[in-house]
Design brief:
heterodimer, A: about 260 residues, 2 domains, four-stranded antiparallel sheet, about 30% strand, globular, B: mainly alpha, ABC transporter involved in vitamin B12 uptake, BtuC, about 75% helix, about 0% strand
């Protein structure tokens, strides 16, 4: 049974359809990446799956429950979000920031329980953030900061995690290490990942499945290797693409025409 | 130089203790300082005798001065300072805007118009001073209500829409107030003007009794919002994804801050700057967590206003400086210093 079920989903703002008639089933413990050119509706789609956008028609269910029927707290225990531009509040320690992920469990009045503190502790350890835990969040480098945002998401202990361009602004090494970290969570923790990525090579290498979106609609949905080699991909971007095999991994290269 | 690392537990404890000591000092100043000198020890004896311990050594006149004049004024000052400070801090958290103050959504302009109506006696008949707080209270609540109706309703209304609606409503009400004043006699204008500057001089146990229930409940609600405001420091969308019902929290926090502020303004007029500088000073001392800022602002603001009032009623005794003038005279330079410190941090 799929853990994320998107049925004929449309999201409109005014007369403009940002996402139209999208249906998608995502199996638990898999990684699904949405690719497509700028303005294709990737962010809108994944934010809707995370429950942040108003659904115009259709439905999104997680673990068999419609997200539109849930309140914020119930939803935050099922799906978490790593936004493209996370807001980093001044004067908060890394540990306090990661602990925000437990809000849906202890609520807005009560203090975090021992379980909450244990979860935060174990996430900090898993993501090698322990040495920073007392540092002010604004003093972290881009790579450390993004790892911290991922830690907050993991602290939410959700079955599904949604990431919107999680590696924007990171150098190559940090891009790879963040994605590897996430991949480990998928393999070991049975986490389901729904992500958007601009980098087609990394998208192909890390995802089990790619969904190609253009003008709000799904153009192609399939195994990563098939989608990167498809003529539709090049068509959507309006340019020539070549896929090169490097030690068994697909590398997508743009070609000047 | 300002330290941007989260403050240690120890520093927070020290600041809390110092603030409580200052609050105690403010209470003593409020009761002991005045045109009739009365020794602090005898005042303490009098207070203890009121709760049934020992007996008072004060004369009847002295105990009347303490109990009927200074005590209600002290209590009203404590309530006003606490409420305005916690409301300012709450607004700053909700709107994530360091310039937010308790008058942001039109409370001041609404109360000002209400008071002008009462003082200028727009309805005809004679001027009755007791109408002023009632109309000011009604005006303040109506203004916030209109602001909310305009700025808070739309499907994806943001905090910024609400602030802009507050600006528009304030401008409209202030212009109506100016129009009314322009038609009024010089005496009425003087009365309105004095009311606008804010003062604790008319404090009595009955005025304390009138506002205290609202104000205490509102302070408690604001302080209880601390944890929610901390989560909301990551922005609207992210806090929703963390499980915070942002709209509901905003309604509760803005409602409590506005209601409490309206009650205070109706009793003491417009006292400026307290609501903006107290939370900022506290933030510099204990860091950015609203779970610390809000409760400490309650005590700090209460002490600050009582000290300011002590200055207001003593420096040119027997007449008084307007309290709003004193808070701004102290507040403006402090504010400038804070801005300077912030610039250094940003570098």
């Amino acid at each position: 049974m799929s853990i994320v079920e998107v049925r004929e989903l449309s999201v409109r703002v005014g007369a403009k359809a940002l996402v139209s008639n999208v249906s998608l089933d995502i199996e638990p413990g898999t990684w699904c990446t949405v690719v497509g050119p700028n303005g294709a509706g990737k962010t809108t789609l994944v934010e809707t799956i995370a429950g942040l956008r108003r659904i115009s028609s259709g439905s999104v269910s997680i673990s068999g429950r419609s997200i539109a029927q849930m309140n914020e707290r119930q939803r935050a225990r099922l799906v978490s979000l790593v936004p493209q531009h996370p807001e980093v509040p001044l004067g908060m320690s890394v540990k306090e920031y990661v602990a925000l992920g437990r809000t849906a469990y202890h609520g807005l009045i009560r203090a975090p329980s021992q379980v909450d503190r244990d979860v935060v502790h174990s996430v900090l350890a898993r993501l090698a953030l322990e040495e920073f835990e007392e540092r002010d969040v604004v003093t972290l480098s881009g790579g450390e900061r993004q790892r911290m945002v991922l830690a907050r998401s993991l602290a939410q202990s959700t079955a599904v995690i949604v990431l919107d361009e999680p590696i924007t602004g990171l150098d190559l090494r940090h891009q790879m290490s963040l994605l590897e970290l996430l991949k480990t969570q998928v393999h070991e923790g049975g986490l389901t990942v729904v992500a958007t990525l601009h980098d087609l090579t990394l998208a192909g290498q890390f995802a089990d499945r790619l969904v190609l979106l253009d003008r709000g609609a799904i153009v192609l949905d399939g195994m990563a290797g098939d989608v990167v080699r498809s003529p539709e991909l090049a068509q959507c971007y309006g340019m020539k693409l070549r896929v090169v095999d490097v030690d068994g991994s697909d590398v997508v290269v743009p070609v000047r025409s | 130089m300002l330290n941007t690392d989260p403050p240690s537990r120890r520093r927070v404890s020290v600041v809390s203790v110092v603030t409580l000591v200052a609050l105690g000092g403010a209470v003593i100043c409020g009761l002991a300082i005045g045109p009739t000198p009365i020794a602090t020890s005898r005042i303490l004896g009098f207070l203890l005798s009121r709760v049934g311990i020992g007996h008072s050594t004060l004369s009847t006149l002295q105990s009347t001065i303490i109990w009927q004049l200074r005590a209600p004024r002290l209590v009203l000052g404590l309530l006003a300072g606490a409420m305005l400070s916690v409301a300012g801090g709450t607004y700053q958290g909700i709107f994530r805007n360091p310039l937010a103050d308790p008058y942001l959504l039109g409370v001041a302009a609404g109360a000002g118009l209400g008071a002008t109506f009462a003082i200028m006696d727009v309805g005809g008949g004679n001027y009755t001073p007791s109408w002023t707080p009632l109309l000011a209270f009604a005006g303040a609540l109506a203004a916030v209500g209109v602001t909310w109706a305009i700025g808070g309703r739309g499907l994806r209304s943001s905090a910024a829409t609400l602030i802009l609606a507050g600006v528009a409503v304030s401008a409209l009400l202030t212009s109506m107030q100016t129009f009314l004043q322009q038609q009024a006699s010089a005496t009425s204008i003087a009365r309105v003007y004095i009311w606008l500057l804010g003062s604790l001089a008319s404090a009595s146990w009955s005025s304390v009794g009138l506002v205290a229930p609202y104000v205490l409940v509102c302070i408690a609600i604001c302080v209880a919002c601390g944890r929610a405001l901390d989560v909301m420091s990551v922005g609207e969308d992210e806090s929703r994804s963390l499980g915070v019902p942002v709209r509901r929290v905003r309604i509760i926090a803005v409602g409590a801050s506005s209601l409490g502020t309206a009650a205070i303004v109706s009793a003491v007029g417009l006292i400026g700057f307290v609501g903006i500088i107290v939370p900022h000073i506290v933030r510099l001392l204990v860091g950015t967590s609203y779970r610390r800022i809000l409760p400490i602002s309650v005590a700090f603001g209460a002490a600050f206003l009582v000290f300011a009032d002590t200055i207001a009623r003593t420096v040119i005794a027997p007449s008084e400086l307007p309290l709003g003038v004193v808070t701004a005279l102290v507040g403006a330079p402090v504010f400038v210093v804070i801005l300077g410190l912030r610039r250094q941090v940003a570098r």
